[in-house]
Amino acid sequence: MNVLHVASEVAPFSKTGGLGDVLAALPKALAQHGASRVTVVSARYGSVDTERHGLAKRLRKLNVTVGGQNFEVGLFEGRLPGPGPVVTVYLIDHPLFSERPGVYGPPENPGQGYPDNPLRFALLSQAAIALGRELTPRPDVIHAHDWQAGLAVYFAQQADWETPPATVFTVHNLMFQGLFPLGEAQKLGVRPELLTPDGIEFYGQASFIKAGLQLADRLTTVSPRYAQEICTPEFGYGLDGVMQARRGRLTGILNGVDYDRWSPWLDGALPARYGKPPAELDALSEEGFAAELSGKARCKAELQRELSLPIRPKTPLLVTISRLTEQKGIDLLIDWLDGELQGRSEFQFALLGQGEPALEQRLRMLAERYPTRVAVRLRFDESLAHRFEAGADFFLMPSRFEPCGLNQIYSMRYGTIPIVRAVGGLFDTVVDFDARSRSGTGFTFGPFTTGALANAIRRALSAYHSDEPSMLALQKRAMRADFGWAASARAYLNVYRQAQSGK
Q1: Are residue 111 and residue 208 in the same domain, yes or no?
Q2: Domain presence at residue 334
Q3: The predicted structure's pLDDT at residue 436
């Protein structure tokens, strides 16, 4: 089976969030577990260092037509890095991408998308289909990701194929829908009969994500729970009717984790490595496991020093790594902190991330008011993220909604216990702690309230202070949890077969 992925980002060439990570890992997992050829098509943005990544520019260019307008696009060819099967990556080269420093918008304000994004991502989609028609053998499946590639499904179905490929569309976050004036879709060559509520029209606008949702042979999203949630008004963002109508074609498949990058015994970013693969952890006694965590204690001390927090081994350190948005529940977290820091509860808190200016300002004020208890680093820093995961005792993730989430999975592998709201992929990956049955891998809560969050944190801190054997067992279960890509890759291959068969 030959699979062609179309996506707006793929790490390490481009990345703004989890989508880039998925496209770095899923294609390799597919190649390892049964796909005969896997190809990824994305764009060469101005930030892509072609020399550093070993990308070669193809001499032959593609002629691509979008809405009657002709574009000559170049191609950079490379491969996903790392061991394992070869996965070829093609980056579409055109000034619409290469002369822009950002992926979706200016780096100083990425939320403010470029005004010509409809044309940019229509061009990416159409160029991917044109390239697919030139490949030998041609793809059996076109797999498009998120709204930026929604039109790839449409263009694939409009193209002249000897044997048309099946199409699969994955929703990574339904909140981002690619909404533009209907006139833009007309200019891009979308047929008039699709510019209706039964097609891609959405409350007077054209919705790129709706194109993928309406037209693809099969739909997936990034966790089983989120697949259920997006069929409801609460999480469907106005598209719950579409999702309900296509529910029989929708599958939730949990994102996997690249444990070669996220395992504390392999992690070169840490001041001390620790831990063992899950099978070896099973053989350790309680005393042996406690000794194995001495490296984590050193990571905690070094992180406290790096953040200018007092080095206190017995004080629980809670951390968050996140985009600073209301989706991630950062407003709820700040509300809890604002109240709890005024009390007598003893803990430290650190945050890494950036986002909405108002949330950044509230966090700065807390750090200034409580310099020995709160540290914030308002940036993205991959290396520091690894040190956060290793040095913390608990990871806070109080999301309003969370399609999949990865940090809670990283945390478990590092023996850092997640405290999460039980939604989406968080529900699917974190099992609530029960001291009586000695079960669970973290602490969960339901209602989106400061009280519910406070209660979950209270339970976690109580276990930390009063029940060391249970905490050690909890850490061991968390570190043994396996969310690698193998099972997910097999599930995707099954979806591809269903798409091909029309089932």
Answers
A1: yes
A2: yes
A3: 84
Task: Give the three-class secondary structure for 31.
Answer: helix
**According to the model, what pLDDT value does residue 101 have?**
86
Note the pLDDT of residue 435: 82
Other beta carbons within 10 angstroms of residue 17's beta carbon come to 15
Residue 406: give the domain boundaries: 278-480
Model pLDDT, residue 17: 81
Mark whether 186 and 71 lie in a shared domain.
Answer: yes
Q: Do 474 and 495 lie in a common domain?
A: no
- What is the tally of structural domains in the chain? 2
Closest by CA position to 227, among listed 256, 197, 257, 255: 255
CA angle 221, 207, 158 (to 5 degrees): 85
Beta-carbon contacts of 80 under 8 Å, excluding residues fewer than 6 positions away, are: 10, 24, 27, 28, 40, 87, 89
| pLDDT value at residue 503 | 66
**pLDDT under 50 in the chain at which residues?**
none
Those residues with Cβ within 8 angstroms of residue 413's Cβ, 6 or more apart along the chain or in another chain: 257, 259, 262, 263, 264, 275, 478, 479, 481
* pLDDT for position 35: 95
Residue 378 one-letter amino acid: L
- Which CATH number fits the domain that encloses residue 338? 3.40.50.2000
- 195 and 296 both lie in a single domain: no
Q: Is there a cis peptide before residue 278, judged by omega within 30 degrees of 0?
A: no
Contact yes or no for 498/218 (Cβ under 8 A):
yes
Element (H, E) at 377: strand 374-377
Residues 294 and 234 occupy one common structural domain:
no
Q: Give yes or no: residues 353 and 426 share one domain.
A: yes
The verdict on residue 88 lying in a domain is yes
Q: Are residues 46 and 148 in the same domain?
A: yes
> Other C-beta atoms within 10 Å of 466: how many?
10
Does some domain include residue 38?
A: yes
- What is the pLDDT at residue 256? 94
**Dihedral, CA atoms, 135, 141, 147, 151, nearest 10 degrees?**
60
Q: Which segments of 159-284 does DSSP mark as H helices, in order? A: 182-187, 208-215, 224-229, 233-236, 240-245, 278-282
Contacts of 104 (CB under 8 A, 6+ apart): 8, 16, 110, 113, 114, 117
Tell me the β-bridge partners of 88: 39, 79
Q: Where are the alpha helices (DSSP H) in 216-356?
A: 224-229, 233-236, 240-245, 278-282, 286-292, 294-306, 330-340
Rounded to two decimals, the pTM is: 0.93
Q: Are 129 and 154 found together in one domain?
A: yes
